[in-house]
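hey so i finally got around to running the thing on that chain from the lab meeting. sorry it took forever, my laptop kept dying and i had to restart like 3 times. anyway pasting the input first so we r on the same page abt which one it is
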Amino acid sequence: MSDFQTLTATLLKFRDERDWQQFHSLRNLITSLNLEAAELLELTQWKSDAEVAALPEDPATREALGDECADILLYLLLIADTAGIDLAEAARDKLRKNAQKYPVEKARGSRAKYTELG
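ok and heres what got predicted. didnt touch it at all, straight out
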């Protein structure tokens, strides 16, 4: 069993013990994931690049970063479970697609979108 599968099973048990599945429509889960992503983004609001880069150095801020990342991951696992998506497989497939869109010889060191690589 993969780490994603084990974590998903633990998450589903947590959810089901609280009878929360009734609130977890696909739309609600996607909305919640985006709200959590905004909370992660909020940790960077009004900070310079140097201040953002230093966030993990402070234990309290590092914990906040970890909490928000975990919230995002947990909602993503619920979305994938609800939609019947194997996240590890989907990620591998996406990496293959990106490798085709962004060949090393064209994309190395470039921030251009694949449609602009020429």
